[in-house]
């Protein structure tokens, strides 16, 4: 059962990689076969070398047909056998190092491919995926589970290499002595199979527990850093430290157990293997006498190569069980579907007249009740719309649907007569989103400069500093710049740690002004500002050169004073619409 699962994982991994990596894998296997053949020849050359030292005449008799050693002196026979042995040892060493290098390059190439594909699959998912999937789980997949996929691939390549190498060595040893080889390999194989059957289930369980503890580990780190102010104020260090230590211990415990279970047979079988060879050698010696010395010498060299290879086969196979759960999660992410934007000119939406929301209903997954019910609304281009309502009244859900981030359960959103959720014209949706600037209550800031945070996602070569300075003025950030020696490249710190809440919100507004799109949605994005600053910024927004359609969500009546319409939500419905005055 467990072996079938591993084989399925290997098959699914192969099936989900691109044609280029499949060709690289085939080339790698061919290279391993060549390496195995060379190991076989190296073992034969070792036997020839040892026999030339003990009995040169027998070498001449055995290889008389080649004319390599015909009419040679004893010294020349030994010299030639030594040179042949050195040649193949050198070639074998070069080939094994080359194989290691090629395996590493293949593994890096495959992992980069997997990482890029998975990250792309995740960031292209719609909002409902991210609502239903914790950020801890996503981070765990993109870090810990990618590492597990890496180790799975590494052990799979080691398994392939060592299986081919072991088969070549066994064939070489059988060629030397069928009885010693069969006896030794049979005993070692039976012991490895017995231990493998006993331990494989345990290793798989260890992998599951370690995978679960890793996710808890990351979650505790995120929660601790997110609540750092409260931890300091309320002296809750020991509470989070205890949770961290427990998760850390569980994770490291199962890593250690898997390491022990997969490694201890090496030390056990090194001794057993040599004992078995010794016993087999004595039995053959009793029949052949001193003629067995070259045979035993060659066998010792073969065993030196074979025993580590057999241990690597065992260890790699067992570790596949340990890393299988992480790989399965990665393979699941590879299969995530998404629609990539491919907007043609005929499918673009250019907002010119109005937005019409018709008979709109929305219900979240696993929810029995609707978050929005029977929403009907008309928004004309250039209007300043205000939205208000208590927490949980449906404001944010409505805005997410309006932006095209959530799909309504029922109803439609028309922009100039085109349904943005038209199933057969998804390009309408992608095109519509490009018209919208959204400024949330909590502004995302990178650990970079003020300029980079205003022009987020824009390369240095494409920066428009005239627009940046204009955005700084209109969002009332000039005072901040003056405080930092008029340096617009001032560092804001991780998540804006060096800034106040109001300064963060103003950077978000500056970002929207810089992007200069038709629709501007302010989602509680001025609640950290003082009254005068809020009023000045709102007037600046309403008076921008390119007139915007603004939608402002706020609990503050002062932020909605200049709105053409005020829409109040209650319990997922539009309770009332007020024009001009609140």
Please provide a written account of the structure.
- It is a single chain.
- By secondary structure, the protein is of the alpha/beta class.
- It folds into two domains: 2-334, ABC transporter type 1, transmembrane domain (ABC transporter transmembrane region fold), CATH 1.20.1560.10; 383-405 and 423-579, P-loop containing nucleotide triphosphate hydrolases (Rossmann fold), CATH 3.40.50.300.
- 63% of the residues lie in helices and 10% in strands.
- The protein contains 17 helices and ten strands.
- The strands form two sheets. It has a six-stranded mixed beta sheet, with helices on both faces.
- A hairpin with a 2-residue loop joins strand 4 (410-415) and strand 5 (418-419).
- It is elongated, with a radius of gyration of 35 Å.
- The model has no long low-confidence stretch (mean pLDDT 82).
Question: What are its keywords?
Answer:
Rossmann fold, ABC transporter transmembrane region fold, 17 helices, alpha/beta, four-stranded antiparallel β-sheet, 582 residues, six-stranded mixed β-sheet
CATH architecture of the largest domain: Up-down Bundle
Helix-strand string:
HHHHHHHHHHEEEHEEHEHHHHEHEEE
The CATH superfamily title of the largest domain: ABC transporter type 1, transmembrane domain
Report strand %: 5-15%
Please state how the strands of the largest beta sheet are arranged side by side.
6-7-8-3-9-10
Uncertain parts: none
Average residue-wise pLDDT? 82
The structure class reads alpha/beta
CATH fold-level name of the largest domain = ABC transporter transmembrane region fold
Topology, number of strands: 10
- Which shape, going by the Cα principal axes? elongated
Largest sheet: 6 strands, mixed
How much helicity do the residues have? 55-70%
Query: In DSSP terms, counting alpha (H) and pi (I) runs of 4 or more, how many helices?
Result: 17
- Domain count: 2
